[in-house]
Structures are given as C-alpha cells and as structure tokens.
Amino acid sequence: MLKLSKKIANNRKCVSFVSNSACSVKSNGVNEKGNLKPFEEIPGPKSYPVVGTLYKYAPFIGDYNAEALDKTAWLNWRRYGSLVRESPGVRVLHVYDPYDIEAVFRQDHRYPARRSHVAMYHYRLNKPHVYNTGGLLSTNGPEWWRLRSTFQKNFTSPQSVKNHVEKTDNVITEFVQWIKDSNISHNEDFLPFLNRLNLEVIGTVAFNERFRSFNPEEQDPNSRSSKCIKAAFGSNSGIMRLDKGFLWRLFQTPLYKTLADSQEYLEKVAQKILLERVHFFDHDDENDSSLLGYFLKQDNLDLKDVLGMMVDIMMAAIDTTSYSTSFCLYHISRNPEVQQKVFDEISALLPTKDTKINSCIVSKAVYVKSCIKESLRLNPVSIGVGRLTQKDIALKGYLIPEGTVIVTQNMVASRLPQYVKDPLNFKPERWLRGSENYENIHPFLSLPFGFGPRSCIARRLAEQNICITLIRLIREFNIKWMGDELGVRTLLINKPDKPVSLSFIPRNE
Asked: Which residues does the annotation say bind heme (predicted)?
C-alpha cells in the first residue's frame, strides 16, 4: 500500500495545454510538444482497423458489456492503470485518479463540450418546426450557453429551490399515505412507485401540473402518466448504445425508433401543457412559482426553446431521481444503525408525523444529507462525467488530441481504498465535519452531478426532493431491505439491476 501511495503521489500533476502550433508545455517533466508520447501509447485494449475496440463489446467474443460499464471500467483499471485508451468508433480516454480528473476539468474553455446524446441531437435537428436546437443536454458551444445561462437562474439558486419545498412535501405526503392505504408488499418492485412519485413532483414544481399518477385510472399502462414514465425510460435507455453505433444514421434501427417514439410522446405531453398555459394566461400570473412560469417570462427564449426544456426535464427528472432515491433507501435499510440515526434526527425536526416540512427543516437535516452524499458516492447518477477536448492537452506525459472523449471514472475511483477508507462500507459520517470518522475526500473523487457549468442544472432540486422523500418515509416507517445485493445497469444513468424490495413497517412514535 505504501508503494502504491507513492506511485499515486507521483502522478498528481496538472494538465497543460498544447496549441495547434508548436509551443512548450510542462507535464511530468516533458518540455516539448514533440517529446510527448502519442495517444496510441496509452495502455488499453488492442485496437484494429475500422472496428477499433468495438469488438470488446460484441456478444460472445467481447468481455465488455454496455449495460455493465462499471465492471468494464473496473477491468480496465486492473489491466491498464489510471489512464486507459479506447477507440470504439471515437477516441476515448478513461481517467481514474482524482488529481488527473481535476486537471482535466481545470480547462479554460468557456463552453465545456461533451459527445453524447448524438442520436437525440440528430432527431431534434430534423424537426425544426418543433425545436430550435438539440436541447440543453446535447448541444455544445454558444447556443448551449444561451440556453444554460437563461434556464439555470431559477434551477440553481438556493432561494428558488427553497420556494418549492412546500409543494414537494405535499406531494410526498400524499405518496406516504398511498403506501399506507395500498399496503405495499416487499414482493413488489418499489422503483415503479418512485417513478410515479417523481413524475408527480416534477410535474408540480416544473409545470404546475398534476399527473394524478396514483389514481386508479392512471395505473393503466395506456394512461398519460404510465406512458410518460415509459417514454422517459425509452429515451434514456438507448442513448449510450446509440452513441456507440452508426447504423441508425443510415436507416431507422429499432433502438432509434424507440428513442424517436419516446421523444415524440414527451413532446405531445409538453405541447399540451404549454399551449394550455399560454392560452390560459393573458397576462403574467404573479402567483405562478413553477419553472415553466419563469421560462415564459424570459425575453431570449421562444416557445420552441421552452418546449425542448420541458421534454428534457421530463426525460431527466423521472428516472434520475427515482434511481438515486432507490439506492439511498437500499443503503439505509441495510444499515439499521444508520437508519436509527436518521430517524433520531428526523424525530427532533418533526415532533409529529404531520409536522409540515419547510426549508429550515431541510437545511437542518444534516445527517440525512450525508446519507445522500454517501449513497451517491457508492452509486452515482452515472459512472462518471464526459468531456470532449477542444484543444490538444498533455496529461501524464501523453498528448491527448483535440476531439478526444474523456470519461472520468468516478464510480470506480470512489470505491478504491487509496482514496477512501473502507470504501465499500456505507458510512455517512465520513462526510460530517467534526465527526471522528470524517474524511477529507478529494473534491473531484465523487462528482455525481458533474462539474462546472456543464453540471446537472437541477442538482439542488433533485437533492432536495430526495431529502424530503427520505424524511417522510423514515419518519413514518421502519424500512427493511428484503432483496438481493443491488448492482447497476449502466444505461445513460445507473439503474438498479434488480427489483427494489423494501418492507415498510409503520412506526408508533
């Protein structure tokens, strides 16, 4: 371990930039651009002409799995080290060391770029009557910044997020009552119920729209809420595989058709909500605190921009928050001593079960929020963060060319003992300053919502929703895990790979 620590310390170097013209750089003692080792010398699986390393993902002959990229990343780290080269159709670099991850993100480009959602970008640009752009998730450059800088004001400011606490708590309180009335069994997968909850929350907060997801008629597969949830998953589930493929560019493959059909349904729902809102209000509604109400007041957005953002919100919010909440409940329910500490904190904040939650209570739920942080360390939203280099850079003595896709492997790195003590144990105290178990974890080790201006626009809102959900559920129930050990399916976002099997035992306190 000592030798390994020294090796890691020697690798803690910052990135240097290399312009397209000859200039000197300093990276691990290399002073000339010409002396940097070429990208092709970075360790990685053997690459062949035309197919590159795509054969590694092929059925039967390959040992990589597109829906188990966490395991693929672990294999790569064990075989090749902290920098790994791949070329599955594009040039890819996997980065594991948090110091190298920090170096990558300390780029000075104004508009961080990434290569993802390329099929969705293609789909939207081919519908100019519906969309102005490929949307916030898939657009790069100044057009991305126009959208981001306008939309983020009401998403990211702490005060605007606090304004949604009461509405969110009302919806989650209804959900808790529904669980009690329905007598939910551990034999039922709890994840679909969380999907319905988060559709309801985001509908209320973002659009001032109730989907009534738990009404009996909405349980039907052909109902609006059921089809919205299916369309969100249909959009998210194929994006990573479409990013790696090319046949969809030539003809409509089944996977691309699923994406297109899913996007089209979300468009239909968003258009109906948007047109009803625009036609209903002849003037600004001062009482409308929804995100949509804010969007419609922005001068540099038109209805096509707003529609694209509404589709992005539904696509991103339902699954992402549901999966993250599932993993939180999984870890807390498997650690009774942690759950007891959570309950003790919540009981002090909510003397009775019907005490209303406000922003002050959320801010004081420190241990609950440390549980969320720890769960996101072990089970982040995705395996890591993607960037597309917009100039040549030098990293660890290698020349990383412009146009390289960099993937930071935070999920694997967060589970390595050289960066975290007892990394596989669920220990919320490691995030609590003043705790004897507090750890000064590298700030770039766990990045569940990304980094910088390209980070998740709804991060604060998602964390607040998860926090209120945990507060309400654990105040009402003693929760026990009844299933097998939970892993992930690495779609665009990490999905539980098994049913979320929970037993809810009512508390008498």
From this structure: 456
Who contacts 22 (Cβ-Cβ below 8 Å, separation ≥6)? 33, 34
Q: How many residues does the chain have?
A: 509
**In the β-sheet with 385-388, what is the strand arrangement from edge to edge?**
83-86, 92-95, 405-408, 385-388
State pLDDT tens for residues 292-306. Answer: 999 998 888 999 999
Least confident span in 67-76, 156-165, 377-386, 419-428: 156-165
What span, in angstroms and rounded, lies between the C-alpha atoms of 2 and 8? Answer: 10
pLDDT score recorded for residue 244 = 76
Q: Backbone dihedral region of 261: left (phi > 0), alpha (psi from -120 to 50 degrees) or beta?
A: alpha
**Distance, CA of 281 to CA of 302 (rounded, Å):** 16
| Residue 297 token pair | 């007041």
| 456 is known to lie in a ligand binding site | yes
Contact present, 411 and 68 (Cβ < 8 Å): no
Closest Cα to residue 379, out of 287, 486, 246, 504?
486
The per-residue DSSP string of 93-146 comes to: EEE--HHHHHHHHT---SS------HHHHHHHHT-TTT-SSS-TTT--HHHHHH
Q: Which domains does the chain have, with CATH numbers?
A: 118-381+414-480+492-498 (1.10.630.10)
With 0-12 / 13-18 / 19 or more C-beta atoms within 10 angstroms meaning exposed / middle / buried, residue 247 is: exposed
The torsion region of residue 85 among left (phi > 0), alpha (psi -120 to 50) and beta comes to beta
